[in-house]
Amino acid sequence: MPDSGFAADRDTPRGLLQTADRALLVLLGFDRRRTDWGVTEVAEEFGWDKSVAQRVLATLAHRGFLAADPDTRRYRIGPAALHLGRTWERSGSLRMLVTPILADLSRQTGDTALLSVPDGFHIRCVAAVDGEEGPLRYYPLVGELYPAHAGATAQAYFAFVPEDRRRRLFRDRPMARFTDRTLTDPDALERRFHRVRELGYAFTIGEYDAHVATLAVPVQLHGEPYGSLSLGGPEARFEGHADRLPRILRAAEQVERLLTGARRH
Protein backbone atom coordinates (compact mmCIF):
# COMPACT_ATOMS: atom_id res chain seq x y z
CA MET A 1 0.00 0.00 0.00
CA PRO A 2 1.30 3.53 -0.73
CA ASP A 3 3.19 5.08 2.17
CA SER A 4 1.78 8.57 1.63
CA GLY A 5 -1.62 10.18 1.90
CA PHE A 6 -4.38 9.65 4.43
CA ALA A 7 -3.09 6.18 5.32
CA ALA A 8 0.55 7.19 5.77
CA ASP A 9 0.38 6.86 9.56
CA ARG A 10 -1.13 3.52 10.54
CA ASP A 11 -0.96 4.12 14.28
CA THR A 12 -4.23 5.18 15.88
CA PRO A 13 -3.70 8.39 17.91
CA ARG A 14 -4.65 8.27 21.57
CA GLY A 15 -8.26 9.14 22.19
CA LEU A 16 -9.52 7.73 18.88
CA LEU A 17 -11.31 4.44 18.25
CA GLN A 18 -8.84 1.83 17.04
CA THR A 19 -11.54 -0.40 15.52
CA ALA A 20 -12.98 2.43 13.43
CA ASP A 21 -9.48 3.52 12.41
CA ARG A 22 -8.65 0.00 11.26
CA ALA A 23 -11.75 -0.16 9.10
CA LEU A 24 -10.85 3.15 7.49
CA LEU A 25 -7.29 1.98 6.83
CA VAL A 26 -8.68 -1.01 4.93
CA LEU A 27 -10.86 1.26 2.78
CA LEU A 28 -7.93 3.56 2.07
CA GLY A 29 -5.93 0.52 0.97
CA PHE A 30 -7.98 0.24 -2.23
CA ASP A 31 -6.68 1.98 -5.34
CA ARG A 32 -6.36 1.38 -9.09
CA ARG A 33 -3.66 -1.22 -8.54
CA ARG A 34 -5.30 -2.91 -5.57
CA THR A 35 -8.97 -3.51 -6.37
CA ASP A 36 -9.59 -6.42 -4.01
CA TRP A 37 -8.29 -7.84 -0.73
CA GLY A 38 -8.31 -11.24 0.94
CA VAL A 39 -8.36 -11.83 4.68
CA THR A 40 -4.80 -13.15 4.79
CA GLU A 41 -3.48 -10.21 2.74
CA VAL A 42 -5.13 -7.67 5.02
CA ALA A 43 -3.72 -9.41 8.11
CA GLU A 44 -0.22 -9.43 6.65
CA GLU A 45 -0.39 -5.88 5.32
CA PHE A 46 -1.42 -4.32 8.61
CA GLY A 47 0.13 -6.79 11.05
CA TRP A 48 -3.20 -7.92 12.49
CA ASP A 49 -4.45 -11.35 13.54
CA LYS A 50 -6.49 -13.02 10.82
CA SER A 51 -9.51 -13.01 13.14
CA VAL A 52 -9.26 -9.21 13.44
CA ALA A 53 -8.88 -8.80 9.67
CA GLN A 54 -11.91 -11.03 9.09
CA ARG A 55 -14.09 -9.06 11.51
CA VAL A 56 -13.08 -5.71 10.00
CA LEU A 57 -13.81 -6.90 6.46
CA ALA A 58 -17.11 -8.51 7.47
CA THR A 59 -18.25 -5.35 9.27
CA LEU A 60 -17.49 -3.18 6.24
CA ALA A 61 -19.36 -5.64 4.02
CA HIS A 62 -22.33 -5.60 6.42
CA ARG A 63 -22.68 -1.84 5.92
CA GLY A 64 -22.18 -2.04 2.16
CA PHE A 65 -18.72 -0.45 2.00
CA LEU A 66 -17.28 -3.74 0.77
CA ALA A 67 -18.77 -6.55 -1.30
CA ALA A 68 -17.58 -10.13 -0.82
CA ASP A 69 -17.12 -12.38 -3.85
CA PRO A 70 -18.71 -15.72 -2.84
CA ASP A 71 -16.43 -17.68 -5.18
CA THR A 72 -13.04 -16.15 -4.34
CA ARG A 73 -13.85 -14.89 -0.83
CA ARG A 74 -12.16 -11.64 -1.71
CA TYR A 75 -13.52 -8.19 -0.97
CA ARG A 76 -14.09 -5.27 -3.32
CA ILE A 77 -15.43 -1.75 -2.82
CA GLY A 78 -19.19 -1.85 -2.23
CA PRO A 79 -22.14 0.39 -3.17
CA ALA A 80 -22.08 2.44 0.05
CA ALA A 81 -18.87 4.06 -1.22
CA LEU A 82 -20.81 5.34 -4.24
CA HIS A 83 -23.39 6.88 -1.91
CA LEU A 84 -20.67 8.73 0.01
CA GLY A 85 -19.00 9.87 -3.21
CA ARG A 86 -22.20 11.41 -4.52
CA THR A 87 -22.94 13.02 -1.17
CA TRP A 88 -19.44 14.54 -1.15
CA GLU A 89 -20.05 16.12 -4.56
CA ARG A 90 -23.20 17.89 -3.36
CA SER A 91 -22.19 18.66 0.22
CA GLY A 92 -20.17 21.82 -0.34
CA SER A 93 -17.22 20.28 1.52
CA LEU A 94 -14.89 20.71 -1.45
CA ARG A 95 -15.73 24.41 -1.66
CA MET A 96 -15.18 24.83 2.07
CA LEU A 97 -11.79 23.11 1.96
CA VAL A 98 -10.28 24.88 -1.05
CA THR A 99 -11.64 28.42 -0.54
CA PRO A 100 -8.75 29.47 1.76
CA ILE A 101 -6.26 28.42 -0.95
CA LEU A 102 -8.20 30.35 -3.60
CA ALA A 103 -8.45 33.40 -1.33
CA ASP A 104 -4.69 33.40 -0.78
CA LEU A 105 -4.04 33.05 -4.51
CA SER A 106 -6.46 35.88 -5.26
CA ARG A 107 -4.76 38.13 -2.69
CA GLN A 108 -1.36 37.43 -4.25
CA THR A 109 -2.44 38.18 -7.82
CA GLY A 110 -5.48 40.44 -7.51
CA ASP A 111 -7.32 38.12 -9.93
CA THR A 112 -10.43 36.01 -9.57
CA ALA A 113 -9.47 32.45 -8.58
CA LEU A 114 -11.58 29.41 -9.47
CA LEU A 115 -11.51 25.66 -8.95
CA SER A 116 -13.51 23.67 -11.49
CA VAL A 117 -14.26 19.95 -11.98
CA PRO A 118 -15.58 18.06 -15.03
CA ASP A 119 -19.30 17.74 -15.62
CA GLY A 120 -19.99 15.83 -18.84
CA PHE A 121 -18.98 17.94 -21.84
CA HIS A 122 -18.38 20.89 -19.52
CA ILE A 123 -16.30 21.85 -16.53
CA ARG A 124 -18.18 23.24 -13.53
CA CYS A 125 -16.92 25.90 -11.14
CA VAL A 126 -17.18 24.55 -7.58
CA ALA A 127 -15.38 27.33 -5.70
CA ALA A 128 -14.41 30.91 -6.52
CA VAL A 129 -13.00 34.04 -4.89
CA ASP A 130 -13.47 37.38 -6.64
CA GLY A 131 -10.47 39.48 -7.60
CA GLU A 132 -9.74 43.07 -6.62
CA GLU A 133 -11.72 44.45 -9.57
CA GLY A 134 -14.87 42.68 -8.42
CA PRO A 135 -16.98 39.84 -9.84
CA LEU A 136 -16.45 38.67 -13.43
CA ARG A 137 -20.21 38.07 -13.71
CA TYR A 138 -23.33 39.73 -12.45
CA TYR A 139 -24.30 36.32 -11.00
CA PRO A 140 -22.23 33.91 -8.84
CA LEU A 141 -19.48 31.96 -10.59
CA VAL A 142 -20.00 28.86 -8.46
CA GLY A 143 -22.13 26.45 -10.47
CA GLU A 144 -21.16 28.00 -13.82
CA LEU A 145 -20.65 25.43 -16.59
CA TYR A 146 -17.80 26.10 -19.01
CA PRO A 147 -17.94 24.21 -22.33
CA ALA A 148 -15.09 21.77 -22.91
CA HIS A 149 -13.75 23.58 -25.98
CA ALA A 150 -13.90 27.23 -24.97
CA GLY A 151 -11.36 28.90 -22.71
CA ALA A 152 -8.43 27.97 -20.52
CA THR A 153 -10.48 26.75 -17.55
CA ALA A 154 -11.82 23.81 -19.56
CA GLN A 155 -8.76 23.29 -21.74
CA ALA A 156 -6.42 22.90 -18.76
CA TYR A 157 -8.46 19.87 -17.70
CA PHE A 158 -9.45 18.26 -21.02
CA ALA A 159 -5.91 18.53 -22.40
CA PHE A 160 -4.82 15.98 -19.79
CA VAL A 161 -7.66 13.52 -20.36
CA PRO A 162 -6.36 10.46 -22.30
CA GLU A 163 -6.44 11.29 -26.00
CA ASP A 164 -8.66 8.40 -27.07
CA ARG A 165 -11.26 9.32 -24.46
CA ARG A 166 -11.07 12.98 -25.39
CA ARG A 167 -11.55 12.24 -29.09
CA ARG A 168 -14.61 10.13 -28.32
CA LEU A 169 -16.01 12.95 -26.22
CA PHE A 170 -15.59 15.53 -29.00
CA ARG A 171 -16.48 13.28 -31.95
CA ASP A 172 -19.48 14.54 -33.99
CA ARG A 173 -20.40 17.02 -31.29
CA PRO A 174 -21.35 20.55 -32.35
CA MET A 175 -19.31 23.28 -30.66
CA ALA A 176 -20.84 26.69 -30.08
CA ARG A 177 -18.97 29.87 -30.95
CA PHE A 178 -19.12 32.35 -28.07
CA THR A 179 -16.78 34.99 -29.50
CA ASP A 180 -14.80 35.39 -32.70
CA ARG A 181 -11.85 33.76 -30.86
CA THR A 182 -13.65 30.56 -29.87
CA LEU A 183 -12.07 27.43 -31.35
CA THR A 184 -14.68 25.24 -33.03
CA ASP A 185 -12.53 23.27 -35.47
CA PRO A 186 -11.78 19.83 -33.91
CA ASP A 187 -8.30 19.60 -35.44
CA ALA A 188 -7.33 23.08 -34.27
CA LEU A 189 -8.69 22.29 -30.83
CA GLU A 190 -6.71 19.05 -30.66
CA ARG A 191 -3.55 20.95 -31.57
CA ARG A 192 -4.35 23.35 -28.72
CA PHE A 193 -4.76 20.46 -26.29
CA HIS A 194 -1.36 19.06 -27.29
CA ARG A 195 0.21 22.48 -26.78
CA VAL A 196 -1.37 22.81 -23.32
CA ARG A 197 0.06 19.43 -22.37
CA GLU A 198 3.51 20.50 -23.50
CA LEU A 199 3.38 23.76 -21.56
CA GLY A 200 1.59 22.41 -18.51
CA TYR A 201 -0.91 25.27 -18.51
CA ALA A 202 -3.53 27.00 -20.68
CA PHE A 203 -3.85 30.71 -21.39
CA THR A 204 -6.67 32.24 -23.42
CA ILE A 205 -8.08 35.69 -24.08
CA GLY A 206 -11.72 36.19 -24.99
CA GLU A 207 -12.52 32.62 -26.07
CA TYR A 208 -15.53 32.31 -23.78
CA ASP A 209 -16.07 35.85 -22.48
CA ALA A 210 -14.95 38.73 -24.65
CA HIS A 211 -12.03 40.72 -23.18
CA VAL A 212 -11.56 38.27 -20.28
CA ALA A 213 -8.18 36.55 -19.97
CA THR A 214 -7.75 33.25 -18.15
CA LEU A 215 -4.69 31.36 -16.98
CA ALA A 216 -5.37 27.78 -15.85
CA VAL A 217 -3.45 24.71 -14.73
CA PRO A 218 -4.60 21.13 -14.20
CA VAL A 219 -5.29 19.69 -10.79
CA GLN A 220 -4.25 16.04 -10.75
CA LEU A 221 -4.90 13.47 -8.05
CA HIS A 222 -2.61 10.44 -7.98
CA GLY A 223 -1.45 11.30 -11.49
CA GLU A 224 -4.92 11.54 -13.03
CA PRO A 225 -6.75 14.75 -14.08
CA TYR A 226 -9.31 15.88 -11.53
CA GLY A 227 -10.10 19.47 -12.51
CA SER A 228 -8.47 22.83 -13.12
CA LEU A 229 -7.41 25.88 -11.17
CA SER A 230 -7.85 29.22 -12.92
CA LEU A 231 -7.07 32.90 -12.61
CA GLY A 232 -9.29 35.26 -14.56
CA GLY A 233 -9.72 38.97 -15.07
CA PRO A 234 -9.88 41.80 -17.60
CA GLU A 235 -7.61 41.29 -20.60
CA ALA A 236 -5.46 44.31 -19.75
CA ARG A 237 -4.41 42.77 -16.43
CA PHE A 238 -2.79 39.78 -18.14
CA GLU A 239 -0.35 41.46 -20.51
CA GLY A 240 2.43 39.64 -18.67
CA HIS A 241 0.94 36.46 -17.31
CA ALA A 242 4.18 34.50 -16.81
CA ASP A 243 4.75 35.92 -13.32
CA ARG A 244 1.46 34.37 -12.19
CA LEU A 245 2.44 30.86 -13.25
CA PRO A 246 4.58 29.89 -10.22
CA ARG A 247 1.84 31.10 -7.89
CA ILE A 248 -1.00 29.22 -9.56
CA LEU A 249 1.11 26.06 -9.85
CA ARG A 250 1.93 26.28 -6.14
CA ALA A 251 -1.77 26.69 -5.33
CA ALA A 252 -2.66 23.69 -7.49
CA GLU A 253 -0.12 21.61 -5.56
CA GLN A 254 -1.73 22.76 -2.31
CA VAL A 255 -5.15 21.61 -3.56
CA GLU A 256 -3.70 18.28 -4.64
CA ARG A 257 -2.09 17.70 -1.24
CA LEU A 258 -5.29 18.69 0.52
CA LEU A 259 -7.42 16.24 -1.47
CA THR A 260 -5.03 13.30 -1.31
CA GLY A 261 -3.68 13.70 2.19
CA ALA A 262 -0.16 13.85 0.77
CA ARG A 263 2.52 15.35 2.99
CA ARG A 264 5.42 17.62 2.20
CA HIS A 265 8.76 15.82 2.00
From TrEMBL:
Pfam families: HTH_IclR, IclR_C
PROSITE patterns assigned to the protein according to its UniProt record, in alphabetical order: HTH_ICLR, ICLR_ED
GO MF terms held by the record: DNA binding
SUPFAM superfamilies per the UniProt record, alphabetical: GAF domain-like, Winged helix' DNA-binding domain
Keywords: DNA-binding, Transcription, Transcription regulation
Residue intervals of the IclR-ED domain: 80-265
KW Membrane (keyword) present: no
HTH iclR-type domain segment(s): 17-79
Domain of life: Bacteria
Family matches, as PANTHER family: HELIX-TURN-HELIX TRANSCRIPTIONAL REGULATOR, ICLR FAMILY, HTH-TYPE TRANSCRIPTIONAL REPRESSOR ALLR
Protein name: DNA-binding IclR family transcriptional regulator
